[in-house]
């Protein structure tokens, strides 16, 4: 929609919370501190990590804003916000996690390419919007369709923003049509985050939220939806966000040999302690988040205070006071859980956390075994060091 968007440069970036740790300024990439991250189950918008590949677009004429739906369907359509608002509204509590979360730790093992992130490139929000399955039904694609009559098998989301990886073109990504048309997959075209209209950083006026899948597929500032035969051919699907083995380097990489990453693997991290903390003698509380992809719940979180030799089980919860039961209707299927354990720290110690999901997938012990040149999906056991001493040192 040329003409209705403002300048595509860094002159009109929105204000951001001063406590965010900025990993890159232009494009703006920032994450909250560890303690801010676990200060509440629902991450306040201010503390929600911001991951961008270009300037934040300016959409100031919401009346004229529309999303076109084209490609391998009978009739193309143009949907305005009023059309989206008219569809049944759903709220889905879902955790978004960047595939690059914990990249900085991976880069310490061996150099990787990409923006550095500590452990907070993740957040949990209540997304409000229409189900993509309903939007597609509106344009004539029934629920649970895996291929359209004209051979469409994937749903591509194209954004308004412009990024250098796409040589000045828009950010884009795709998901399988079968997932897009499955109402139970809870894929949303979201216009609200935590009960408020989306803000500019997070995709105003409309973004995709693909629960259980790496953040890269949840395209912000949606401009168009294309029904296509093959996966999106864009940079972020074909030349990025793929998981390679440790043997692959920039000289021997062959992108076409690997599939685009979709579900995120099981992950957890300790947020109540820094990489190295000085603690007072006595009991300490070890607290953090755990989450898995594909809607798989968290079965267990194990904590060790001796570097992984012996373990105790942490308690898990989503809302305080309500015990978390993985796979239960009372739990938020697409959301992280918090875990908590108390421990007596004798002396200097290495504290470790690892999570197990309901498919019994468990985090790998070492970074080296999953190291990859782009530094994605660092889900290795999370380790922090504590020293007993004066807490104010
Ligand atoms: N249009 C657009 N959508 C995008 C991106 C982007 O740069 N442009 N970044 C993606 C990546 S890599 C992630 S992890 C999430 C981050 O969403 P957030 O900034 O709302 O946390 O948005 C995804 N959607
Ligand atoms: Mo990401």
Give structural attributes:
5-stranded antiparallel sheet; Sulfite Oxidase, Chain A, domain 2; Sulfite oxidase; mainly beta; 32% strand; binds molybdenum atom; 393 residues; 5-stranded mixed sheet; Immunoglobulin-like; 8% helix; binds ligand MTE; 2 domains
Enter the CATH topology name of the largest domain. Sulfite Oxidase, Chain A, domain 2
Low-confidence stretches: none
- The domain count comes to 2
Helix-residue proportion: under 10%
CA-CA gap between termini: 56 Å
**Can you tell me the overall shape?**
globular
Summarize model confidence as the mean pLDDT.
96
**Sheet having the most strands:** 5 strands, mixed
How much beta, percentage-wise?
25-35%
Bound molecules: the ligand Nc1nc2c(c(=O)[nH]1)N[C@H]1C(S)=C(S)[C@@H](COP(=O)(O)O)O[C@H]1N2, molybdenum atom
CATH class term of the largest domain: Alpha Beta
- What is the architecture of the largest domain at the second tier of CATH? Alpha-Beta Complex
Helix-strand topology string: EEHEEEHEHEHEEHEEEEHEEEEEEEEE
Provide a count of the helices: 6
Corresponding CATH superfamily of the largest domain: Oxidoreductase, molybdopterin-binding domain
Strand order of the largest sheet: 5-4-13-8-9
Structural class: mainly beta
Total strands: the figure is 22
Account of the 3D structure:
With 393 residues, the chain is mainly β. It has 2 domains: 4-239, Oxidoreductase, molybdopterin-binding domain (Sulfite Oxidase, Chain A, domain 2, Alpha-Beta Complex); 267-388, Immunoglobulin-like (Sandwich), CATH 2.60.40. Helices cover 8% and strands 32% of the residues. It has 6 helices and 22 strands. The strands form 5 sheets. A 5-stranded mixed sheet has the order 5-4-13-8-9. Strands 6, 7, 10, 11 and 12 form a 5-stranded antiparallel sheet that branches. A 5-stranded mixed sheet has the order 15-22-21-17-18, with no helix packed on it. Strand 8 and strand 9 (170-176) form a beta hairpin. It is globular, with a radius of gyration of 21 Å. The model has no long low-confidence stretch (mean pLDDT 96). Residues 51, 98-100, 215-216 line the site of molybdenum atom. It is an enzyme of class 1 (oxidoreductase). Its cofactor is Mo-molybdopterin. Residues 53-235 form the Oxidoreductase molybdopterin-binding domain. Pathway: Sulfur metabolism; Energy metabolism; sulfur metabolism. GO terms for molecular function: heme binding; molybdenum ion binding; molybdopterin cofactor binding; sulfite oxidase activity.
């Amino acid at each position: 929609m040329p003409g209705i968007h403002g300048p595509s440069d860094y002159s009109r970036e929105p204000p951001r919370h001063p406590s965010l740790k900025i990993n890159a300024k232009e494009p703006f990439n920032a994450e909250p501190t560890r303690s801010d991250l676990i200060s509440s189950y629902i991450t306040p918008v201010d503390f929600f990590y911001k991951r961008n590949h270009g300037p934040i677009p300016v959409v100031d004429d919401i009346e004229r804003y529309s999303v076109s739906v084209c490609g391998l369907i009978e009739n193309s359509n143009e949907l305005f916000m009023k059309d989206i608002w008219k569809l049944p509204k759903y709220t889905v509590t879902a955790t978004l996690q960047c595939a690059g979360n914990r990249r900085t730790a991976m880069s310490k093992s061996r150099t990787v390419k990409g923006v550095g992130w500590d452990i907070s490139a993740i957040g949990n929000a209540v997304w409000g919007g229409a189900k993509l399955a309903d939007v597609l039904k509106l344009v004539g694609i029934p629920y649970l369709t895996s291929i359209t009559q004209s051979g469409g098998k994937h749903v591509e989301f194209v954004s308004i923003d412009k990024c250098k990886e796409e040589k000045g073109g828009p950010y884009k990504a795709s998901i399988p049509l079968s997932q897009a048309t499955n109402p139970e997959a809870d894929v949303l075209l979201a216009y609200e985050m935590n009960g408020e209209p989306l803000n500019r950083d997070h995709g105003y006026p409309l973004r995709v939220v693909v629960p259980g899948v790496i953040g890269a597929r949840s395209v912000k500032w949606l401009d168009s939806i294309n029904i296509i035969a093959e996966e999106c051919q864009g940079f972020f699907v074909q030349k990025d966000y793929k998981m390679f083995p440790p043997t692959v380097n920039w000289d021997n990489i062959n992108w076409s040999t690997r599939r685009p990453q979709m579900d995120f693997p099981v992950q957890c991290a300790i947020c109540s302690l820094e990489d190295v903390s000085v603690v007072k003698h006595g009991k300490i509380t070890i607290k953090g988040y755990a989450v898995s992809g594909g809607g798989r719940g968290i079965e267990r979180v194990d904590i060790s205070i001796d570097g992984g030799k012996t373990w105790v089980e942490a308690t898990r919860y989503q809302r305080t006071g309500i015990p978390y039961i993985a796979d239960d209707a009372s739990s938020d299927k697409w959301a992280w859980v918090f875990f908590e354990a108390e421990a007596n720290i004798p002396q200097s110690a290495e504290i470790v956390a690892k999570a197990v999901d309901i498919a019994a997938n468990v985090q790998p012990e070492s970074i080296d075994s999953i190291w990859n040149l782009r530094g994605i999906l660092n889900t290795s056991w999370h380790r922090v060091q504590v020293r007993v001493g004066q807490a104010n040192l």
